[in-house]
Specification:
The chain is mostly beta strands. It has 2 helices and 8 strands, in the order H-E-H-E-E-E-E-E-E-E. 9% of the residues lie in helices and 39% in strands.
Length: 130
């Protein structure tokens, strides 16, 4: 195969469907230490093989490259929120003092989980500002 064809084969098209797309990946980093010391939590993350877009429902099932969003649950509460943005950072402000756990799920457009990671951290000085 010539170098141009190898480059084209490695590229992902946003115009035509991609056969055998690789599995989506979620890579989550620990909270940034400086803001955490002030009670504000910044959790950096990166998504591979999936685009975070404000698209939901069955019609998005066949979109290629694959689309989805994040579900975020704090401290095992019975509710969660969805993140359709592309900031690559989850921000939590005003967290109370103590140990906390954040579950970050990478989901498809219908909310089916591809993969998930949990981040735990301790807040010493609760704050209100992002």
């Amino acid at each position: 195969m010539n170098p141009l064809n190898e480059t084209l084969a490695a590229a992902q098209s946003t115009v035509v469907p991609i056969d055998d797309e690789p599995a989506p990946r979620l890579l989550v980093e620990p909270p940034l230490p400086d803001p955490l010391a002030q009670g504000v939590v910044f959790i950096p993350y990166r998504v591979e093989n999936l685009r975070i877009l404000p698209v939901a429902g069955p019609a998005a099932r066949n979109v290629s490259p694959r689309v989805g969003h994040l579900h975020i649950t704090v401290d095992d509460l019975p509710w969660l929120w969805a993140d359709f943005g592309q900031s690559n950072t989850i921000v939590l402000a005003g967290m109370p003092r103590g140990q906390h756990k954040v579950l970050i799920e990478l989901v498809d457009a219908e909310g089916n989980v591809f993969t998930a990671q949990t981040v735990t951290f301790h807040v010493d000085n609760p704050g209100r500002q992002p």
